[in-house]
Write a structure and sequence with these properties.
- It is a single chain.
- By secondary structure, the chain is an alpha+beta fold.
- The chain is 18% helix and 40% strand.
- Strands 2-1-5-4-3 form a five-stranded mixed sheet.
- A hairpin with a 2-residue loop joins strand 3 and strand 4.
- The protein is globular.
Length: 82
Amino acid sequence: MYQVILLKSEHDFAREQWEAVDEVVDHEGTGYSLRAGPRQPLPTDHPWDEIAVYAPEEISEEEFQEWYAALQPQVEELRLKY
């Protein structure tokens, strides 16, 4: 299983669990591309599945980095160490 984080905007995200990850997926009518992972986080107080982060295909790498940083405070998976 994979823990999937879909960055919808710099203020919105979705968290899901998928059995497989692909380079490009359609989620609720929007095309998303895999931008980070899947990666296995370092151990914490509980076990983690591998984490994959997606963002809309049309945003640039720079925008992805901005969204990732903006959402880190509210998305625990984006704050984990790998």
